[in-house]
Design a protein that fits this description.
Elements (H helix, E strand, L loop, with lengths): L2 H12 L2 H4 L4 H13 L18 H15 L3 H22 L16 E3 L4 E3 L11 H17 L4 H31 L3 H4 L8
Antiparallel strand pairs: 1-2
Helix pairs in contact: 1-3, 1-5, 1-6, 1-7, 3-5, 4-5, 6-7
GO molecular function, one term: hydrolase activity
Keywords: Hydrolase, Membrane, Transmembrane, Transmembrane helix
Protein name: Metal-dependent hydrolase
């Protein structure tokens, strides 16, 4: 799924703390947002493998939740929701499309790498691909209620994510066609860093 969807879901996971522990809600929201984004920082170096740990984040969630419950504070709560956001991110990538430049073609059997099993997990394609209309529908379904319940700066983040998501969905197929052309002009020293799917 697209990054705006991951980011907004990370925020949504932390939103109950607005009621349950309002003083800790900003830390939880920040953690959830960053955790929802973090795995995709590997976009250009081993995407969905280098920073995606579908089993590892789940295992880390237990002690992180325990620490937040036993010693609630901005750091422990923020860290716990960071891990929860990363767990959701990896799970969502499994429910999306494959790891390919044009995932609507359905040719890839790689959704996310499971380091614990030492193998790629196959995409379920419930959301056919990142930037699909169904991806945008999920983003909107999560983002619109958050626009009502969150205050700034988180409301601004949600609004920005929704705007980026709409633009990305509109341009998704065009960008996939453009990528090989643009990266074809990459100098030799940079070519080794260009993901194989863009070549």
């Amino acid at each position: 799924m697209m990054l705006p969807t991951h980011a907004v879901v990370g925020l949504a996971i932390a939103t109950p703390l607005l009621t349950l522990a309002p003083d800790l809600a900003p830390a939880a929201l920040t953690g959830g947002l960053l955790g929802g984004i973090f795995p995709d920082l590997d976009l250009y170096f081993g995407h969905r493998k280098t920073l995606h740990f579908p089993t590892g984040y789940v295992v880390a969630a237990l002690p992180a939740a325990g620490a937040a419950l036993l010693a609630p504070g901005p750091i422990t709560v923020g860290l716990a929701f960071f891990v929860f956001g990363a767990v959701a991110h990896c799970r969502m990538d499994r429910y999306g499309g494959g790891l390919e430049l044009k995932p609507w073609e359905g040719t890839s059997d790689r959704a996310v790498y499971d380091h614990a099993r030492g193998e790629w997990r196959e995409p379920k394609r419930w959301i056919p691909y990142d930037g699909s209309p169904r991806d945008l529908l999920l983003l909107a379904a999560v983002a619109l209620p958050l626009l009502v319940v969150l205050d700034d700066p988180f409301r601004l983040v949600v609004g920005f994510a929704l705007l980026v998501g709409v633009l990305y969905v509109g341009l998704r197929r065009w960008l996939a066609s453009l990528a090989p052309v643009v990266f074809g002009y990459a100098p030799d020293w940079l070519a080794s860093y260009v993901p194989e799917r863009y070549q």
